[in-house]
Amino acid sequence: MRHAHEPEFHAVFLILGLLVLLSVPGILWRHQQLASVQATYRSPMAPVILVPGSSATQNRFNQLVKELNTQTETKHSLLRVEVCTDGRLKSSGTIRPGDRRPFIVVGFQDRHDGAANILRQAKWFTIAFRALQKAYHFNHFSAMGHSNGGLVLTLFMEHDLAATGAHAERLMTIASPFNLEEWNPTVDTPLFKTLVAGRSALPRQLAVYSIAGSETYSDDGIVPFDSVNRGKYIFQKQVRSFTQITVTGANAKHGDLPENRQIVKLIRQDLLKTVSFREPNG
């Protein structure tokens, strides 16, 4: 038995179906717009994260930051974080409200040298980075690593950065031994092979500056020049730009390089200047 109102129900369902179909393009467009905004949005804060080398603590860059603050109009806060071997974080210092370019130093309780510990430190760094993101709500940053600190940052950017959703804008490595302390240029260490194997995951918009110190044109007193020079095999053709710089003269020894006058100038010019995400290819 057919009901008298059945055609009316069919008409209503037809109209509802048409409305749903008409709304689909609008919904898809809104999702695309939201994804586009999320992809290009940059948080007001863009910290400069500093990682010291082996044996150095989270206090390693106190003098560097003090020197930089005498040379810039805006005074930058300094937050120091130590990552314990069990993943706990200890901090000292503070980020001043409204400071958009603070310095954050990430050091490690286990500061021993060696490839195995460098790999562990890269994972500890990821723990600290995620905690800092959650606490300060930033999604872009620049970074500097001295000696093995540069290796820690490179490993982080190859293996863990993408999962954080953050954008790395600039990376400066100072006397970072990409082939460790190997003097023979024909020998590739396992860590160097690991870095080369992961290079395709490096951020495409990253600008990289690799700085080498030279006392004798072959080393900086600790790290062979060839080991620093091998950064080109990791970064070239993988990132937006790669620049190699050699510093000689006064304070060109390995341990003195972060306070070297030329390097302080490079940090001020290249890591602290305002960054536009959509920069032209270099």
TrEMBL record:
Listed GO MF terms: hydrolase activity
Source taxon at top rank: Bacteria
InterPro entries: AB_hydrolase_fold (IPR029058), DUF915_hydro-like (IPR010315)
Swiss-Prot/TrEMBL keywords: Hydrolase
UniProt-listed SUPFAM superfamilies: alpha/beta-Hydrolases
The UniProt record lists the keyword Hydrolase: yes
Entry protein name: Alpha/beta hydrolase
